[in-house]
TrEMBL record:
It holds the Pfam family LytTR. Residues 143-245 form the HTH LytTR-type domain. GO terms for molecular function: DNA binding; phosphorelay response regulator activity. PROSITE patterns: HTH_LYTTR, RESPONSE_REGULATORY. SUPFAM superfamilies: CheY-like. This is DNA-binding response regulator. It comes from Persicitalea jodogahamensis. InterPro entries: CheY-like_superfamily (IPR011006), LytR-like (IPR046947), LytTR_DNA-bd_dom (IPR007492), Sig_transdc_resp-reg_receiver (IPR001789). The gene is algR. The modification 4-aspartylphosphate is found at D53. Residues 2-114 form the Response regulatory domain. Keywords: DNA-binding, Phosphoprotein.
Length: 245
């Protein structure tokens, strides 16, 4: 598992590397002292897992994750503060380790990562045809949220919104939650019709009503129904290419 360690303290990085030595499935491919370094290494090395400090000079760990375009690696936060736990799991963190890192807690975190990956691989192996099939506007999907169920034409879903370990689907006047990650849904959706606007949102391009310039070279898209979604600067370049003649 290709792993990147991100922490502004060199001694903390060295200690974590030492603690990770017994875990042969963890391949440390690089380390970074700040978010700027980390973004470059994430693009270059394509890690599958981040050990990420929260408080760093410049952008903090949450701001770093927000800056990652497309699929983000799995994340285990490492921090000296316990104030950020709830927010960490809003970012789909697999675990949250307090410094100094306890070897038993680290063991639990690694086990959680392995179980998560095994579950994903088993799900793919059980239904390879279904898992690999791209879904388009005319496909119908079954949605269950608590006691409520829907059988919905995918083209009616105008927005997919990440909510921690869940995704909120927006269609008609309904907003059910499904236990999926936004990344896993993105793999299943036809890229000709569904666009990853930012880390938290995928929009249905057929529902775009208005496009406006936004801060720092980004765009603000208004969907039919009134949802307003910001497209990040880097994604705005892709969006313009996709929507142009």
């Amino acid at each position: 598992m290709r792993t990147l360690i991100i922490d502004d303290e060199r001694l903390a990085r060295n200690e974590l590397k030492r603690l990770l030595e017994p875990y042969h499935k963890i391949e440390i491919v690089g380390e970074a002292a700040n978010a700027e370094e980390a973004l470059g290494l994430i693009t270059e090395l394509q890690p599958e897992l981040l050990f990420l400090d929260i408080q760093m000079p410049g952008k903090n760990g949450f701001e770093l994750l927000t800056s990652i375009e497309g699929k983000a690696p799995d994340v285990i936060f490492t921090t000296a503060y316990d104030d950020y736990a709830i927010k960490a799991f809003e970012f789909n963190a697999l675990d949250y380790l307090l410094k100094p890192i306890d070897s038993e807690r680290l063991k639990d975190a690694i086990q959680r990562v392995e179980e998560d990956r095994e579950h994903h691989e088993e799900s793919t192996a059980e239904t390879p045809e279904r898992a690999s099939r791209v879904l388009g506007q005319n496909d119908k999907v079954f949605i269950k949220d608590g006691e409520k169920c829907w059988f919905v034409l995918l083209g009616k879903i105008r927005l997919f919104e990440s909510m921690g370990n869940y995704v909120r689907l927006h269609f008609d006047d309904q907003k059910p939650l499904v236990l999926k990650s936004l990344n896993s849904l993105e793999d299943r959706l036809d890229p000709e019709n569904y666009f990853r606007a930012n880390r938290k949102h995928i929009i249905n391009l057929q529902w775009v009503e208005k496009i406006e310039p936004w801060f720092s070279g980004g765009l603000l898209v208004t969907l039919q129904g009134g949802d307003r979604i910001e497209i990040s600067r880097r994604q705005a370049i892709r969006f313009k290419d996709l929507m142009s003649l």
